[in-house]
Amino acid sequence: MGTKESELIKGRREKVKAIRDRGVNPYSNKFSVNTTSFELKKDYGELSAEELKKVSNKWSLAGRIISKRVFGKASFFHIQDRKGKIQAYIQKEEVGDEEYKFFKTLDIGDIVGIEGTLFKTKTGELTINVLSLTLLTKSILPLPEKWHGLRDVELRYRQRYVDLIVNPSVKEVFIKRTRIIQLIREFFNDRDFLEVETPMMHPIPGGATARPFKTYHNTLHIDLYLRIAPELYLKRLVVGGLERVYEINRNFRNEGISVQHNPEFTMLEFYQSYSTYEDLMELTEELFAYIAKNLIGKLKFNYQGKEIDLSPPWKRYKVVDALKDIGGVDPEIIMDRNKAFDYAKKLDIEVDNSMGKGKILMEIFEKVVEEKLIQPTFITMYPTEVSPLSKRNDEDPDVVDRFELFIAGREIANGFSELTDPEDQKARFLKQLKDKEIEEVGKIDEDFIRALEYGMPPTAGEGIGIDRMVMLFTDSPSIRDVIFFPQLRPEK
Prior knowledge:
Blueprint: H1 3-21, H2 37-44, H3 49-53, E1 59-70, E2 74-81, E3 84-91, H4 92-95, H5 97-105, E4 111-120, E5 126-137, H6 153-158, H7 160-166, H8 168-189, E6 194-195, E7 201-202, E8 214-217, E9 222-226, H9 231-239, E10 244-252, E11 264-273, H10 277-295, E12 300-303, E13 306-309, E14 315-318, H11 319-325, H12 331-335, H13 337-346, H14 357-368, E15 377-383, E16 399-407, E17 410-417, H15 422-434, H16 446-454, E18 459-465, H17 466-474
Parallel strand pairs: 3-5, 6-10, 14-15
Antiparallel strand pairs: 1-2, 1-4, 2-3, 4-5, 7-9, 8-9, 10-11, 11-18, 12-13, 15-16, 16-17, 17-18
Helix pairs in contact: 7-8, 8-10, 8-17, 9-16, 11-14, 13-14, 15-16
């Protein structure tokens, strides 16, 4: 902190003391609002100056002072509330000498309540003529003058409260995020899905292959794991007769952090009985189109300089075809495990001798295909080896009835026809255990197998990364831009 900034803060602390010495609470909680900046502009912004003179209503609203132009006997300032900002005009003649003098001592960042009438300035700006002003919160730390110019992007994430104050575009991203989640709920509720909640602490982590966060329950004397996916609990509900369920859930994975990954993230997961993965691909197209139309009014929009077109139907490729046609991989490499292994090594991909052909091909896919999938594309027919919860394809048991959706070069969704055969499911779990893919607890979820033995109807399920979806619809380059408080290293 520089000397100048330290002096500013010292001066503001002295102002707090002076306010208290006058018998005034610098952190008051006694003010009622009856409007917002947005409502005033919507209802009166188009009226002329003459028409406004006929409006005698008095309005009260509150917000943060974000600019001030102080003159001898009158001043202009802007306050910012949850809906935007509006100009205010305060005169010594109107509010009295003491109150005007007090206003002049206020700082950018202070939160005030104002009451007044409306008029328009000579430049045509809707303005509140202040009749009374109340200090509600004294700001001690000064707002940054050039927040956009800060090179330390991490500071914006760490001090999101400041980021939201000074960058209206940031607030818009999170308003859109909330709207997207509302639209998701509307979409599924209209299709007779039931929104449910399942446990966030699991005795056995399952539903995905990922390293979990571990905790301990003092009363039960057991280890628990923050969920890596709600899948196995949601499918238990399907067994119980809830044929269409969805959950907007928080998942936790104790793994890497990147522009696409945060240890704590939000997923939409849903299950529909008497459906296949192909039905869900169509449903996914409908969902994204529904959100796009209601959020931005069109199916074509720009994401990071590239036009994305969500108009159905979307492209579909089998994994092997995508490797060949998009990744340029020789068919002989795709068909032969040893050749695939050698090819992966040439691409500097970390592979080992325990990996089967399916895993190696998916590593190659991630390297040579994924970033090229800019327009919405479904990749289907994944190797059984990398799909422990998916139904095998009836014609080719080496692959499963599964898809992943890619947009803008990243995975957005994963869906498949569910494996309902309890014996096949147990065998795959045991293979995962043998291959040390679920070594965290050293056991499989026997209760889930028991649930399947009661009988699960033919079902398709899907998970969609909401954070990545929000990135797409808000043109945000990093997952940290769409999470209020992303995980960061401790401050130095």
